[in-house]
Amino acid sequence: MEMQEGWMKEYSWATYVDWNLPGSEEYKQYTRRCAEYLKWNYDEVPGDPGLMQRMLDGKMGPGGISHRPARQRYRTGPDQPRYRLL
DSSP letter string over 33-51? Predict the structure, then answer.
């Protein structure tokens, strides 16, 4: 049991990627409730179907898919001072 729950200590964010699909409001609420239960931060980001398609097609180039080594800190944006671990 301890090993199964150990991964939860490594995270502090639950992020919902909004693809604007039918029923997405229900899944947003579920993700929010999970974040509250785990005492994690919650946020939402818009999904980009073009990015997903490029990834599936294997077309990775400038502005496409970025890779960062595991557990590297990165800034989420110039107007967002928080950092996240990947």
Answer: HHHHHHT-EEEEEE--HHH
Residue 24 near residue 18 (C-beta atoms within 8 A): yes
Q: Per-residue pLDDT tens for 34-57?
A: 999 999 999 999 988 887 787 788
The residue among 66, 14, 5 whose CA lies nearest residue 41 is 14
Q: Which residue has the tokens 């699909």?
A: 21
Q: Is the dihedral of CA 47, 53, 55, 61 positive or negative?
A: negative
Residue 33 main-chain phi, psi, to 5 deg: -65, -40
Cα–Cα distance measured from residue 67 to residue 18, given in angstroms and rounded to the nearest whole number: 21
Contact (CB, 8 A) for 73 and 84: yes
- What pTM value is reported for the model? 0.58
Cα–Cα distances (Å) from 47 to 23, 73, 75, 82, in that order, read 15, 22, 19, 20
